[in-house]
Amino acid sequence: MSIQSNSAAGSQTGIHAGIRATIQASDQPLGRDDLARLVARDIAPGSFVNLGIGQPTLVSNYLAPEQNITLHTENGMLGMGPEATGDQIDGDLINAGKIPVTELPGASYFHHADSFAIMRGGHLDICVLGAFQVSATGDLANWHTGAPDAIPAVGGAMDLATGAKDVFVMMTLLTRDGASKLVEACTYPLTGIGCVTRVYTDKAVFLTGPDGVQVRETFGCTLEELQDMVPVPLRAANVDAS
Amino acid sequence: MLNFIDTVGEAVAGIKDGSTVMIGGFGNAGQPFELIDALLDGGATDLTVVNNNAGQGDQGLALLIKEGRVKKMICSFPRQSDSWHFDAKYRAGEVELELVPQGNLAERIRAAGAGIGGFFTPTGYGTMLAEGKETRYLDGKWQVFETPIHADVALIKALTADGKGNLVYRKTARNFGPIMAAAAKHTIVQVSEIVPTGSLDPETIVTPGIYVNSIVRIDSSGAAAAGKTEQVA
């Protein structure tokens, strides 16, 4: 599998509305781990990153030491290490998903207002979140289905979506019923407006922003086949394929 | 006025019906279980509780909710795989929920402790959690006005206190402790050790004793061993 990594990771600067064909980077849809590997590769060296609960957490398995990425967890830590096992498990050292984790050399602890100031003050380079839906202009819906019997829970999602410099979403492109989660306008309650910059899915990587949706690469489908699945206009991104 | 108190029962005895009580902890990390148990035994009811979550499993805050002592939860993340007591009370309409984005929760608590009357933040703008709130276009962004959250009492857990009430925490169990200590009129802390004044390095103190009113020592509190016995979901 050959995956083109965008050299401008962490920012959409330099990505123009190109007319070149989208790279078909793989002849099959990506599995969860391949997608996590791709996101990890796209994170610029030295970045400060927050990985959301669920699928985004997988990204940490594929960050290379030489990338020198520092992971932030909302409950008050920079320099979070891998999940704890065996004797490492310590109830006082957990991540946002309440899973026991470890600390790396150079880690720091701080209280909750400082932890969220790190997000809200624009200090995080990237956060990676799951989503129910993303709109063509980067609106995010990921916290509440809006169902009458659902108990809403938002956690830090709105702060992350609004505060991080870049918001990457990881999700399957289609629901179980085959509906696109990339939509013209979100029908689920919003988490943030115009905040998502990239959407990593099993079928393609999308760049979202005020000018609409560009496709950076596809997996197991052509741009035309992708367009048939997605109800928003798509165009190929002019990626740096060097 | 700082008091060192022998038992958790005495520590929480002054909490009245109808109080707003901040409870530290993120999930089980930093949750002052012994103080919550004492509050449960003490009988205070009609409480408004401020916590990140709404209780987990069959312990601590979850039991306070189960026993119908909480009329309102102010929190960011009530729904968890083991939040069955909250879920049942909420679905039965027996507990009110004010759902707050976690950063707004932290900053509103911080604002109360710092004497700030409110603040504007972009978090939540355009979402249902900002409905009905004042908005302004500031610094190139739409922002939402948020107000401070004050409390009558804070129950928190720290690792170590000295004779002046200065506190040091342990790892991610720090979470809401420092800001809740500042936001409440009366702050009650459970610690695992009390050390002589002067033995904590002033450079490493996280919560200065000015924010602390009552301290009670709990043997197992805050220790790594305690963490190992509390299975985290």
Automatic annotation (TrEMBL), chain A:
Is Transferase one of the keywords UniProt gives this record? yes
GO MF, one example: CoA-transferase activity
Alphabetic keyword roster: Transferase
Look up keyword Membrane and say if it applies: no
Which protein family is it in? Answer: Belongs to the 3-oxoacid CoA-transferase subunit B family.
Q: Which PANTHER family match?
A: KETOACID-COENZYME A TRANSFERASE, SUCCINYL-COA:3-KETOACID COENZYME A TRANSFERASE SUBUNIT B-RELATED
What's the protein name? 3-oxoadipate CoA-transferase beta subunit
Species name for this entry?
Arthrobacter oryzae
Name the Pfam families for this protein.
CoA_trans
InterPro entries cross-referenced by the UniProt entry: 3-oxoacid_CoA-transf_B, CoA_trans_fam_I, NagB/RpiA_transferase-like
From TrEMBL, chain B:
Signal peptide (from-to): none
Q: Does the keyword Transferase apply?
A: yes
What family does this belong to? Belongs to the 3-oxoacid CoA-transferase subunit A family.
Q: Which UniProt keywords apply?
A: Transferase
State if Transferase is listed as a keyword. Answer: yes
Lineage, top-rank taxon, reads Bacteria
A GO molecular-function annotation:
CoA-transferase activity
Per its record, how is this protein called by name? 3-oxoadipate CoA-transferase alpha subunit
In terms of InterPro entries, this protein maps to: 3-oxoacid_CoA-transf_A (IPR012792), CoA_trans_fam_I (IPR004165), CoA_transf_BS (IPR004163), NagB/RpiA_transferase-like (IPR037171)
The upper taxonomy is:
Bacteria, Bacillati, Actinomycetota, Actinomycetes, Micrococcales
Q: Which organism is it from?
A: Arthrobacter oryzae
Q: Give one Pfam hit by family name.
A: CoA_trans
